[in-house]
Amino acid sequence: MLRNFFLSIPISLRFMLLSAFSFALMTACVKLVSTHNIPVFEIVAARGIISLLISYVDIKRKKIPVWGNNKTLLIARGGVGTLALICVYYAVTTLPLAEATLLQYLYPVFTALLAFFFLKERIQRSTLICIVLCLFGLLAMVKPNLSMTGEAVLPWFSVCAALLGALGSGTAYVLVKRLSQSEDSSVIIFYFPLIALPLSVILLGDNFVMPNTEALILLLFVGIFTQIGQVGLTKAMQSEVAAKVSAFSYVQVVFSAILGVIVFNEIPSIWTLIGGSLIVLGALVNVFGKKTKS
């Protein structure tokens, strides 16, 4: 019975759930490794090394050309994704995990709008309802973090970094959708660390910190979970319209909230529970709306 239920889930949703869970684990590892005073650029570089090696081996396994066809868009995807990643990691290391994840998860809104304008993808009604519900959920969780005087409790620089990361992520996902028409998923993923590694090393400069054993293990898991998340995301984007798939990714907020309780002892407030419920409802509307239409 459980197997039949799993098989009834659309393949794109399965890949996105895998991606969301992997990225939630990745952000938790990033936050943990930052407690060892490892700079953000060093974390990005470590992730780049691991992802680059795994991606290269995967490409060789498939026996396909390493450099792909549309090199301009591939480099653009890698560059935009790298800048977004730096912003997201900075937000994760300077904000509570739940808040950082929530702010970053505005990116499906950007994805849907960018896909509408540049990919000519129509925003389906179920996806629109999902986005609206999820935005209300995000608002419910973020609004209590504002004081009665209107002064933000969260540092504005970190909040802006998270929003820039969301915009960059949305742009990168639209590029992934366009590239999926002509490039293998492994090549698309390969260009991300190919750009991220040298750029992060340059930005790191002389601020390298030698990690201890625990930090090294965490950095390794950052790279592994990232790779799994990227594969799941790219596979999902190849099998559905960009706006629909990006709406599924809101489930990562739920995963992050659970990890916040287990790993960081962050007990969700009533506002977090209300907002999380709206997000889950939005995801269900998205899934069942598609099945009803089909």
Rg for CA atoms:
19 Å
Low-confidence stretches: none
Which assembly state applies to the chains in this document? single chain
How many strands, which pairing sense, and closed or not: the largest β-sheet? none
Number of continuous helical runs: 13
Overall structural class, as computed from helix and strand content, comes to: mainly alpha
* Relative strand content: under 5%
Into which percent range does the helicity of residues fall?
over 70%
Query: Count the strands?
Result: 0
The domain count comes to 1
Plain-language structure description:
The protein has 294 residues and is mainly α. The chain has one domain. Helices cover 79% and strands 0% of the residues. The chain is built from 13 helices and no strands. It has helices spanning 2-8, 11-34, 40-62, 71-94, 97-104, 107-118, 125-142, 156-179, 185-204, 213-239, 242-248, 251-264, 270-293. Helix 2 runs parallel beside helix 12, helix 3 (40-62) packs antiparallel against helix 9 (185-204) and helix 6 packs parallel to helix 8. The longest helix has 27 residues, at 213-239. The protein is globular, with a radius of gyration of 19 Å. The two termini are 23 Å apart. The mean pLDDT is 81.
